[in-house]
Specification:
438 residues, alpha+beta, 2 domains, 8-stranded mixed β-sheet, 3-stranded mixed β-sheet, 17 strands, 43% helix
Length: 438
RNA sequence: GGAGAGGUGUCUGAGCGGUUGAAAGAGCUCGCCUCGAAAGCGAGUGUUGGGGAAACCCAACCGUGGGUUCAAAUCCCACCCUCUCCGCCA
């Protein structure tokens, strides 16, 4: 959410943002509601000031009359109080009526602000689609095969480590059952990621709830706009988390942090759940796009002035994972049209996939600046200074299921086996997954 | 799920219809004192919104949301959360 005062004073910047992001945003209602609201606030607050003064005076009169007992003076004071009460009744009714109107305007203003996306940072390229994203760098090289590399679902089913039929029985489409060394590979990856980030990169491991409430989702910007993309638990205020970015942001919701202790770096392994509404027919084969997947998320609470340096460091932390695994990847700077709702600047890390001969998104690292912090009420304060909103950063480090795909495809052998990268072997206990492992 | 207790400022904790944004204590900041420190003394110490060039003024906020009243931290209703006991349970 953007700051109300900022929006009011920078309508031109908001318009530019909408153009750059390729969305339509009607600002006319905003101008009207905002002006009306301020006018009414001025009026009602004057009335309230009167009410406070007069109520106080009535209190003194009533108290005085009681102290005077049954004397004539007491009667005079009582009469005066009653007269004032009569007048105040009218004013009080006016206040109530105006408060109702103001609350309605407040609500409409808030709803509007909740649907306005973040303003892209100046360093973000303006573009019309994903085609305008800018490649920043790439690492490694595509592996060479003397046979036609197969897609991961063929490798997985061939080796007996993925079972989609069983998943359909259990839950339905867009789910997968991992078996044997396939399940162990998933677990090995998650452990490797967590160990690397906690032991070498200084992140604190968090294991949060996988179910989150409406307030948490609103804080990161998932709600109210993206309700259709999530699973909601009927009859409750709980949703299945779409990303642990939600939980990690809410770790400090409505708190003021000590600025000297920032940046605070946390990471979490969680399952993530997405309804994938609107993705019908897209990536239906394999495990690329599932209703449930695992992700190790990196997250930082930073002071405003350090957030862009921290974003670069965050991306580096993610790259190390792919380098250790020996996977060819590239770093893309997303253009204005391809960025997420809450983000001011996003790098995607894309891993090479031999079966398609193309790169696949495996991590997304964003600086949301104060956008989420403002919605979530997360501030920081220097000892003597004023409190200000922190900046929040998030990045996948990495998406476990998609890394599983990358391992299977890049390290597949002609006989259908999968070679396990050196760094994963301690976690796997084997150096390869055989062609028919079950 | 059943029964009870409770949610007040950075913290402890008072107030339970009328000079209460909120006693008292602690903490913190600044100043005085001191060679320095402690103690002591003095002042300050929340957030949000509205107005203002500013100083500053006004309004709202005592778990959340409603209600009663001229007036609510204080009374009423609903919900949320914490604690204790019972039941159930991985």
């Amino acid at each position: 959410m953007l700051d109300l005062g900022y929006v009011r004073e920078h309508l031109d910047a908001i318009e530019k943002m909408a153009r750059d992001r390729g969305i339509t945003l009607d600002l006319a209602p905003f101008r009207e509601i905002d002006a009306k609201r301020r006018e009414l606030i001025r009026m009602v607050e004057a009335l309230k000031a009167t009410r406070n003064k007069e109520s106080h005076a009535i209190g003194i009169l009533v108290g005085g009359a009681e102290a005077l007992g049954d004397s004539p003076d007491s009667k005079v004071q009582k009469a005066l109080a009653i007269e004032k009460i009569q007048i105040m009744k009218g004013i009080s009714d006016d206040i109530k009526a105006q408060d109702v109107t103001i609350n309605d305007l407040d609500e409409r203003l808030k709803q509007f602000l909740l649907t306005v996306p973040n303003i892209p940072h100046a360093s973000v390229p303006v573009g019309k689609s994903a085609a305008d994203n800018v490649e920043v760098r790439r690492w490694g090289a595509p592996p060479k095969f003397d046979f036609k590399p197969r897609p991961h679902w063929e490798i997985g089913e061939g080796a007996g480590i993925l079972d989609f039929q069983a998943a359909v029985k259990i839950a339905g489409a867009r789910f997968a059952v991992y078996k044997g060394l396939g399940a162990r590979l998933e677990r090995a990856l998650a452990n490797f990621f967590l160990d690397l980030h906690t032991r070498e990169h200084g992140y604190t491991e968090i294991l949060p709830p996988f179910l989150v409430n409406t307030a948490s989702l609103t804080g990161v910007g998932q709600l109210p706009k993206f309700a259709a993309d999530m699973f909601h638990i009927e009859g409750t205020d709980l949703w299945l988390t779409p990303t642990s970015e939600v939980e990690l942001t809410s770790l400090h919701r409505d708190e003021t942090l000590d600025a000297d202790k920032l940046p605070e770096k946390v990471c979490a392994w969680t399952a993530c759940f997405r309804s994938e509404a609107g993705a019908a027919g897209k990536d239906t084969r394999g495990i690329k796009r599932q209703h449930q997947f695992q992700k190790v998320e990196l997250f930082k609470f930073t002071r405003p002035e350090q957030s862009y340096d921290e974003l670069e460091l965050l991306v580096k932390n993610v790259e190390v994972v792919l380098q250790r695994l020996g996977l060819h990847y590239r770093v893309m700077l997303l253009c204005t049209a391809d960025m997420g709702f809450a983000s001011a600047k996003t790098y995607d890390i894309e891993v090479w996939l031999p079966s398609s001969g193309d790169f696949m998104e495996i991590s997304s690292c964003s600086n949301t600046e104060a956008f989420q912090a403002r919605r979530s009420g997360i501030r920081c304060k220097q000892k003597a200074g004023k409190s200000e909103f922190v900046h929040t950063l998030n990045g996948s480090g990495l998406a476990v299921g998609r890394t599983w795909i990358a391992i299977a495809e890049n390290f597949q052998q002609a006989d259908g086996s999968i070679l396990i990268p050196e760094v994963l072997r301690p976690y796997m206990g084997v150096d390869r997954i055989p062609p028919a492992s079950t």
